[in-house]
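Render this sequence as a predicted structure.
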Amino acid sequence: QVQLVESGGGLVQAGGSLRLSCAASGSIFSRNVMGWYRQAPGKERELVARISSGGLTNYADSVKGRFTISRDNVKNTVYLQMNRLKPEDTAVYSCNAGGLLFGTGGVYWGQGTQVTVSP
């Protein structure tokens, strides 16, 4: 059974940092592009970052230089290190598996984790 489980969300002040983790079942992790998306209230879900199995990355312009996506292919886990957080980063962040590095996302989703950045 495909499973993606996120953790690490929470409340942080602007300028602070959080690290999100997404543990994936091995069958969907090892060869797939993994990504993070977010959805703020009243807005459409948007790409935050993706990473290929070999470590190539793709970031949304709004997070470049502040967020870093990485993966541990032994632990089947993808991470999102978020630094210099802004109130506009407040959203539900969801892990995604599959899809293309510079194209559409995959069909597998985690349940999401809330990130709230206070001014």
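Summary. The CA atoms of residues 30 and 61 lie 27 Å apart. The longest strand covers residues 91-99.
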